[in-house]
Amino acid sequence: MRYAGLFLLGLLALAAMLPAAQAARDGVEAGDGPSGRAPVGTPTAEADHGKGPRAGDIIPGRYIVRLRDQASPKALAARHGLRPQVVYGAALKGFAGHLSDRALQGLRADPNVISIEPDTIVTANDLPHTQSPWDQQVLPTGVDRIDADLDVTAKIDGVDDPLDVDIAILDTGIQPDHPDLRVVGGATFLWSSCDGESWADDYGHVTHVAGTVAALDNNIGVVGVAPGARLWAIKVLGPAGWGYASCVIAGIDWVTANADTVEVVNMSLGGGDNPSMCDAIATSAFCPKLLWGLLFPALGTSLHVPSSRHRVKYAALFRCTTG
């Protein structure tokens, strides 16, 4: 069963309560899995001075390659002697990875290549936290703003009666054993290869977002707009709250490919101009099975998308600029 109107209003409220994001949190440390080493070609941080990668920073030598619909990403890459680190096939056709000048020259001459753009840094948008005692339930500001507690579908009454809907949140992951959330699964898309094993939240951002979206209607913590909805943690940002645009696209690609299960998607990130990300979102949002809720404040910058591709439906404060 789908509750499009309810979730649209909820995600609008969620977006409305998000402030402009910090470009990077103090004390950011670059990491690539358990080793803790910064990925090759990635901006590194100076924790002592609070300096780190900013939303929109270019990742040196790494590119996102978009192809025409009829092209095979793996076959085209092979023709150019390339082994891409990540391949897309659902939200858009293409691949991403580190490319030499020679490889770039060959790809730019290929008629099946639509565009080649630098990969960039994407960051989490910080949220104001609702302070609440753990032994009683609190109605968060954003949830109260849209009168979700009066909605007959949400039926917020302190009695746990979970809604039958699946929501994917693309961000820093979700705490899998949180007692106030119903987390059913996830996927990880991080660093050079846009993969990983754990989708648990090691930053704290999305566990809070998830509470606003779908915290259980019980007697603890907060209650969400869609109480008890099944949550999918799509981890595209690392433990310091930032990641690669190419990996965000991989997460969008995963959600689009799993539209038979996932019904609602939320993403509240900060990033610079990235047409490929916007096109991936636009294509995914055209899928009749998915409802998207988006926010891209990014300290006043916007993602850019050509006007012919500005098709996102139900987008909350979607700030891809038209050109």
Description:
- The chain is an alpha/beta fold and 323 residues long.
- It folds into two domains: 4-22 and 124-309, 3-Layer(aba) Sandwich (Rossmann fold); 47-120, Alpha-Beta Plaits.
- 21% of the residues lie in helices and 20% in strands.
- It has helices spanning 4-16, 73-79, 101-108, 141-145, 205-214, 245-257, 275-285, and strands spanning 58-67, 86-88, 94-98, 113-124, 166-171, 183-188, 230-235, 242-244, 264-271, 291-295.
- Strands 1, 2, 3, 4, 5, 6, 7, 8, 9 and 10 form a ten-stranded mixed sheet that branches.
- Strand 6, helix 5 (205-214) and strand 7 form a beta-alpha-beta unit.
- The longest helix has 13 residues, at 4-16.
- It is elongated.
- The two termini are 38 Å apart.
- The model is unreliable at 1-50 and 296-323 (pLDDT under 50).
Kindly state the percentage of residues in helix.
10-25%
- List low-pLDDT spans: 1-50, 296-323
How many angstroms separate the termini? 38 Å
The pLDDT mean sits at: 75
CATH level 1 name of the largest domain? Alpha Beta
Beta-strand proportion: 15-25%
The run of helices and strands is HEHEEHEHEEHEEHEHE
The coarse silhouette is elongated
CATH topology title of the largest domain: Rossmann fold
Number of helices: 7
Q: How many beta-strand elements? A: 10
User: Gyration radius, to the nearest Å?
Assistant: 19 Å
Q: Report the sheet with the most strands, covering strand number, pairing sense and barrel closure.
A: 10 strands, mixed
CATH architecture term of the largest domain: 3-Layer(aba) Sandwich
Q: Count structural domains.
A: 2
Structural class designation = alpha/beta
The CATH superfamily of the largest domain bears the name Peptidase S8/S53 domain
